[in-house]
Amino acid sequence: MRTALVGGGASGIGRATAEELLRAGLRVTLFGRDELRLKTAADELGAAYVAGDLADPVCTPLADAARRADVVVLNAGGPKPGRVLDVQDPDWARGTELLLLGPLRLARAALPAMADRGFGRLVVVTSTAVRRPEPDLAVSVVLRSAMTAAAKLLAAEYAEYGVTVNCVAPGATDTARRREVLIARARSSRSSEADLIAAEVDTIPAGRAADPAEIAAAIGFLASEAAGYINGTVLTVDGGRTEAIW
């Protein structure tokens, strides 16, 4: 039985991804910082869990779990909103650990072991902000862009071993993180949250935000054996909002 390690598995896209992979027959382990929420989610789903902070430079349980996994989904909560010159050094440092160095540490643990076994799937959950930058999400835009570039390099390095590395870039998705961002924007712009939601939906051809399960479906496909020839790509899941052709 294939095994999967899923970040942010207690809620939102991470939990939906865990459900998707469990339905596909994988044995799933959730990881995240909040042990109580993780345990609750794991018990409800019939999964295992390991508590650990992706931003912690020394987190042996997470690294060990990554080495054992056939599928690793690198998914983490977003950093604080802020414009690029307003973000202070401590927030850049924290964001770098969470969105770049932490994922790279897990990739460093997971990919050689996957290569030895002749199969592996690393899926990095980024954001459409990488292709359609949002000024008030500067830390996310800059650091997820860097992780996207790293994923491209890793994809080429491990392809010959039956291992793929891809990114999924969600657009507006009905999660607690999206609500947090909208609340912050409402406060700074003196607009109502309802008005901002309406304005955002107006930019989405599908006319709505995604359900987390829709993002999970894309992740589940890239994690499957059927996706073995898809490598080094960014799969945008945003209801048609991103206007770039490529």
The CATH top-level class label:
Alpha Beta
CATH architecture: 3-Layer(aba) Sandwich
Average pLDDT, all residues: 93
Distance between the termini: 36 Å
User: What percentage of amino acids are in beta strands?
Assistant: 15-25%
- What's the domain count? 1
Instruction: Work out the radius of gyration.
Output: 17 Å
Helix content: 40-55%
Q: What is the CATH topology classification name?
A: Rossmann fold
Given helix and strand content, the structural type is alpha/beta
Walk me through the structure.
The protein is an alpha/beta fold and 246 residues long. Helix content is 48%, strand content 15%. The chain is built from eight helices and seven strands. A seven-stranded parallel sheet has the order 3-2-1-4-5-6-7, sandwiched between helices. Helix 1 (12-23) crosses helix 8, helix 3 packs parallel to helix 4 (89-117) and helix 4 runs parallel beside helix 5. It is globular. The termini are far apart. The mean pLDDT is 93.
